[in-house]
Amino acid sequence: MRADHCASQPGAQLQAGGQITAADALLIVLVIGAGLLLDRTVELPVQATGSVIVWAVMLRLLHRARGDLRVIIIACLAWSSFGEVFASLIWGLYKYRLYNIPMFVPPGHVLMLLLALFAAERWRRLVLTAAPVIAVSYAVFALSMHRDMFSVLLTPLFVATLLMGRRREVYSATFLLAVVLELYGTWLGNWRWADTASWLDLSMANPPICIGALYCLRDVLSGATLSWIRGWKQRRQEEDIAESGTLPAGGTV
Predict the structure, then answer these.
(1) CA atoms within 13 A on the CB side of 94
(2) According to DSSP H, which parts of 123-167 are helical?
């Protein structure tokens, strides 16, 4: 799989290729699924030990990645770490079972993004159909019941990514995977969402079904980071060419 985007646009789009295999995708599902299942009862030392496995899988994929995909992985890791600190510790939208940010969470976000890229390439029509139907249908239901208004607020954000993004299938796959992950993690008790979104005073379900919109924001920021880096490299190359072009033939500095 490769990550690609238009370097001239801030919202650079992700694109899947052939670097992530079906075996890799299965490994990601097993690591996340089994890891959360085991994490629901362990204490901090064991949790830290288990996190090593998630990091090892992510680093293996990073080592094997080629081209822009390496930047995407590192950017996703950085933005996910920032997002977890802000959303959980500062904003207080949700709390993990041990009131920390487990060390497996940031690399877990990377694995989720890679899985979304894998799914988007292979089931494009399915994810493009299912994601908006689920998001809009649930938002209408939540609005009619006056519950989970946070999801109602997030739904236009998700729809906007589908309308404006060139790789809509990636965001759709991310949204669907986020729904599954959030339902699974909250059911196990690994984390719990607050009843109300502070600052906004909006009700939230546990989990907010349309929280996948924020996962899509993670993807957008990762792509934008790649776009900025590629643009910076291109400007540096142009500057080097311009400087070298001012030198006389065979001249030295």
Answers:
(1) 21
(2) 124-145, 149-164
Residue 7 in any domain: the answer is no
Q: For residue 41, give every residue at least 6 positions away whose Cβ sits within 8 Å of its Cβ, in sequence order, or none.
A: none
Q: Give 2's DSSP letter.
A: -
Nearest to 213 by CA among 93, 69, 51, 55: 93
Q: Confirm if 216 and 175 have CB atoms less than 8 A apart.
A: yes
pLDDT of residue 153: 97
Enumerate the β-bridge partners of residue 96.
191
Estimate the crossing angle of helix 44-64 against helix 105-122, to 10 degrees. Answer: 40
Parallel/antiparallel/unpaired status of strands 191-193 and 196-197: unpaired
Within a domain: residue 151? yes
Beta bridge partners of 94: 193
Per-residue pLDDT tens over the stretch 148-170: 999 999 999 999 999 988 789 99
Q: Model pTM greater than 0.85?
A: yes
Q: 64 lies in a domain? A: yes
- Number of domains into which the chain is organized: 1
Cα–Cα distance for residue pair 35/44, rounded to 1 Å: 14
Question: Domain limits at 156?
Answer: 22-231
Give domain status of residue 88, yes or no.
Answer: yes
Which pair of tokens denotes residue 139?
């938002």
